[in-house]
Write a structure and sequence with these properties.
40% helix, phosphotransferase system, PTS sugar transporter subunit IIB, phosphoprotein, transport, 108 residues, Rossmann fold, 19% strand, alpha/beta, single chain, PTS_EIIB-like_sf, four-stranded parallel β-sheet
């Protein structure tokens, strides 16, 4: 099963850099994921996602997105975001998915 993770920020640019780091970590850890980044205003163009990760600068829209989407919505830790720590952000997302029953232990 491929897990679909969408990152969103004000313009989609800074999260694109983080996506690259997350994809490297996923390959290294053999996690089957599809990770993309968009501007927060474009999120409503997507469905069939497993989790939405928000850049800290748009974290204030989390409550609105939680009402709109029936999937986990999380704000990326500011330190991890600033350091572009793709491995930590990916692992945090996978923990949420496991807690939501979306991922199984063999996905790691």
């Amino acid at each position: 099963m491929t897990y679909k993770i969408m990152l969103a920020c004000a313009g989609g640019f800074s999260t694109s850099m983080l996506v690259t780091q997350m994809k490297k970590a996923a390959k290294k850890e053999n996690i089957d994921v599809e990770i993309n980044a968009v501007a927060e205003s474009a999120l409503n163009n997507y469905d069939d996602l497993d989790i939405i990760l928000l850049g800290p600068q748009v974290g204030h829209i989390k409550p609105e997105l939680e009402k709109e989407f029936s999937i986990p919505v999380r704000v990326i830790d500011q330190m991890d975001y600033g350091m572009m720590n793709g491995e930590k952000v990916l692992n945090d997302a996978m923990k949420v998915l496991k807690g939501a029953g979306k991922a199984n232990d063999s996905s790691k």
